[in-house]
Amino acid sequence: MIKVNLLNDHSVAAPKKQKSQKNQHAVETPQISRIGFAYIAAIIAAAAVLGYMWISSGNAIKAASSENQRLERDLKEMEDLRRQFVELEQKKQERQGRIDTIEKLLDSQKGPVKLMNAVIQAVPQNRNIWLTSLEQAGNGVKVKGETRIPEALPDFMDALKKSGIFAGVDIEIIERHDEISNFSILCANK
Q1: N- to C-terminal Cα distance for the chain?
Q2: What is the DSSP string of 1-25?
Q3: Which of 101, 103, 154, 173 fits a disulfide with 184 by CB distance 3.0 to 4.6 angstroms?
Q4: What residues does each domain of the chain span?
């Protein structure tokens, strides 16, 4: 069966239709607002996460920048210390060179100094002996001098032998002039 409404009055049917549409909208509205709130909450959460990451990356950049500046200062200080170390090392080497030169000079002087000390210590204190020259003569030394007491010469020669520097001590010349005798003694080096 087919029903046909012949009445032109749609007022009765229309309100029913509107009510059902209103009910239909009322039911759909809460679902859309829940989804919208979920989207808004997700956007806010994403914005908060991005904001936190932006702020923390800015802080990390500042920290890295200050660390970089500190490291550059440390590097400059290390370069200054290295430069000072190199300068001090050069001064140390120069001074060590000077010390080595002085030690070589002292070593080269030890022979003559020992020789002079041995001869001076060999001169008898109570006898009148004066040394006039000390010469390097080949493989030895020639000692010349004067004395008022020629008998003191053997004591002087014995003291030269006992010094341990000379292998042999021999008298070369004794010349008598009035009260003074001139002498020359040859001392062979060891």
Answers
A1: 159
A2: ----------TTHHHHHHHHHHHHH
A3: 173
A4: 29-122, 127-189
Q: Does domain 127-189 have CATH number 3.30.1360?
A: yes
Task: Give DSSP secondary structure letters for 62-86.
Answer: HHHHHHHHHHHHHHHHHHHHHHHHH
Place of tokens 């890295």: 64
pTM above 0.85, yes or no: no
- Burial string for 45-76 (b: 16+ CB within 10 Å, else e) reads eeeeeeeeeeeeeeeeeeeeeeeeeeeeeeee
Q: How far apart are CA 148 and CA 172, in angstroms?
A: 18
Query: What are the tokens at 172?
Result: 């070369």
Residue 32 has pLDDT above 70, yes or no: no
CA 114 from centre of chain:
42
Find the DSSP H helices in the chain: 13-122, 153-162
Q: For 11-26, how does the pLDDT look when each residue is reduced to its tens digit (9 = 90+)?
A: 554 444 444 454 554 4
In the predicted structure, residue 99 carries a pLDDT above the cut 70 = yes
